[in-house]
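Table 4 source record.
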Amino acid sequence: MQRKLRALSDLEAPEACPLLRRFATYIVASGQGAQILDVACGAGRNAIFLARCGCDVVCVDKNLTTLRQLCSLDPPRNAPWDNLRLCEMDLAHDPWPFGPGTAGAIINVHFLLPALFPLFQSSLIPGGYLLIETVPAHGGNYLELPRAGELRSALQGAFDFEFYKERKAGPGNYDAVTVQLLAKRR
């Protein structure tokens, strides 16, 4: 297993977000064979990367049409599709379908809904990782970004931060930040 983990850092997956590629070894190792949830997965760029690393990934999003199309185009022998499970749901309104301790890691990139944090906490196994990256600070995006310290405060009761970076966003008088974090469930 150690050899496989070292090889993960050498994998090329330009479509996966850089934060995930940076911490892939941690995320894959922490899962202990449990499924990884890619919450608000979009077209599946991060889920496909993790599936190619040998993980079982549940792709969660309101609309999975693009990912379904990708699955149908790739030849089966070169694709990780056997490692992907699709779960179409409205994250803001549908009930959370993942029980306690059912996820080895949760990836949440470019979609932030703090109401999901207690559900993330419950669904993660102890030692499982949570990776969050907010939307970047482009144009009016700062209006949907958290306040400085908000994510750290919301998660610090159940998580130990292994990486946490905030960057100021928006006009000088507006207290918004972009956040990248990797946190381990206690």
